[in-house]
Specification:
By secondary structure, the chain is of the alpha/beta class. 42% of the residues lie in helices and 18% in strands. The protein has two domains: 20-71 and 207-243, no CATH class; 77-206 and 248-283, Rossmann fold. Strands 3-2-1-4-5-7-6 form a seven-stranded mixed sheet, with helices on both faces. The two termini are 35 Å apart.
């Protein structure tokens, strides 16, 4: 199914430097007057090791922001909203709680948290201004509704601009794999949560069932990049990056272990929609 993309981190030093051959590929594009894509085939072998990954991710999201919601609906066959509703339930928000949605993108999960809970405050954070512009426009179209409780903040998942113990629940949907250093982000999540605060992560992993895995590999790797690129009129390479970013990221058990290593208790993971999407949950002691 579609790889929903949410952005969330600033550039940091990483394991791989500039690739001369990739620079040559981009140079050819510039010489012909064409806009160079954010990623070359060589770099997509493992996009998570790129030193400039965050900057490229931000430029991709800025490019696809206007068509982001439409592509998510169409290419998930409208399942993306069900996955977000599952995340809201897992967050177990009680009346008066404060909630943070990291890598909020255009605000779909943030809005679901505001509509479906009695939280006192709901904050959405993202590092791509163009995505937040869309989120704020969607909120402002409905004044006087629960969406009015939403506050959007531009910020970095690895250096959250909040005091320790500020929130009772924290969600991140399809964004943790876009963070330069996921372990740093998870540590920040633990820092800003109050005791007994819930962390809820939605992420794509490869399905365990061989037949579902084969179908999803073909759909996400071949069909979706082509059709989503057409819908978005995208030249950034965003929808080529997405399936590669899933295949080279931590699997479900590795991410569950990372949540535990960050200090969360009762870390669990369960599949949604035949294991195409996975829901992780942990509790701050």
């Amino acid at each position: 199914m579609v790889n929903d993309v949410s952005s969330t981190t600033e550039p940091q030093a990483s394991r791989a430097g500039p690739d001369p051959e990739a620079q040559n590929e981009r140079g050819g594009a510039h010489q012909t007057g064409a806009k160079a894509p954010a990623w070359t085939d060589r770099e997509l072998a493992d996009p998570h090791v790129r030193a400039d990954k965050a900057g490229r991710v931000r430029s991709m999201f800025a490019a696809i922001a206007p068509s982001y919601d439409l592509n998510n609906r169409v290419h998930s066959l409208w399942r993306d909203q069900a996955w977000r509703r599952a995340a809201v339930r897992a967050a177990a928000v009680e009346p008066g709680h404060d909630v943070l949605d990291v890598a909020c993108g255009t605000g779909d999960l943030t809005q679901a948290l505001a509509r479906r809970t009695q939280a006192a405050t709901v904050t959405g954070l993202d590092f791509t201004r163009a995505m937040l512009d869309v989120a704020e426009m969607k909120r402002d179209r409905r004044p006087g509704t629960p969406l009015s409780r939403i506050r959007y903040v531009e910020g970095d998942a690895m250096a959250l601009p909040f005091e320790d113990g500020s929130f009772d629940a924290l969600t991140i949907a399809f964004g943790i794999r876009n963070v330069q250093e996921p372990s740093r982000a998870l540590a920040e999540f633990a820092r800003v949560l109050r005791p007994a605060g819930r962390l809820v992560i939605l992420e794509f992993h490869r399905p365990r069932n061989p037949l579902v895995r084969a179908f999803n590999g073909f759909y996400a790797g071949r069909v979706m990049p082509w059709t989503a690129t057409l819908l978005a009129r995208d030249r950034s390479g965003a929808y080529r990056y997405l399936p590669r970013s899933v295949g080279s990221f931590m699997d479900a058990e590795q991410l569950r272990a990372a949540v535990t290593a960050a200090g969360f208790q009762d870390a669990t993971v369960r599949p949604l929609t035949m294991g195409i999407c996975w829901l992780h949950r942990g509790v701050k002691p």
